[in-house]
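Mods, move this if it's the wrong board.
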Amino acid sequence: MLWRVLLGAHQSVLGGAFTAIPRALEDGCETIQIFARPSAQWRARPFASGEVERFRSERVKLPGPVMSHASYLINLCATDSVILDKSRTALGEELSRAEDLGLDYVVLHPGAHLGAGERDGITMIAESLAAVRERTRGLRVRLLVELTAGQGSNLGCRFEQVQAILSQAGAAGGDLGLCFDTCHAHAAGYDLSTDEGYDRTFAELERTVGLERLKAFHLNDSKAPTGSRVDRHAEIGDGYLGLLPFWRLVNDPRFAGIPGVLETPPGPDRQTSFKRNLERLRALIGAPKPPGPPKPQIPPEEDKKRSAQQRLFD
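Not the wrong board. Structure tokens:
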């Protein structure tokens, strides 16, 4: 019987979706996340001949769930009707491609209201989800709303916002789950770096969204302080979160069997840091309690450094 979170990472699909599985096994993954279509393009090429079949045959080598992350271009509350329609179409394609590959979940950033306001933005996201559900009725794959860092006008950074989206989506909301990103939660103001903060955060999640909706984790430390609204991932234990919240999480029986995937940045050698960070996480399982978080000093130029992905909805 599974008694802990399942550990993995977001793997590259360079060379075909099926190539993610050998990379995952090399890193020591039990579960993975991939891009099932381009992360920053509206158009997606059809799967190559045999790509789906090879992915499905490789996928059985992983004991845990497999998921994809939806394109960062998708904005389900876009104020531009053309972008809104493109977003809904793209999300439908995301779900269909994930279904073809036999994935369990698709993780989605819900969108940014771009000045329309929180209430109208949440309503539009819920309407978009209902519309996409109607277009993709019958698919098995499940959509997960990701907790965001709250930068710019991005919605989904508070549990109350996520619950409002689920509630207003009606029947579509019943099929939705939550992906909890540790860096995003920290940036949004949920301080996981102490025992008190960890307990308070998950008690609040239970009160609002409900722990039964929590279906996946993104496991990332943070290069920015609590409440910064800055989404800057750090390697496990190297940022403002420190090791304590990850120790709590990997030993928390409430999350048994839930996938937790790394999105940690490459190391100084520009190689992926996944194997190293998975080893750090596994070393915490059943280990003595680590000390509280360090307080790293992030150089000003690092705080100002923003990726194209992070600027999309500012």
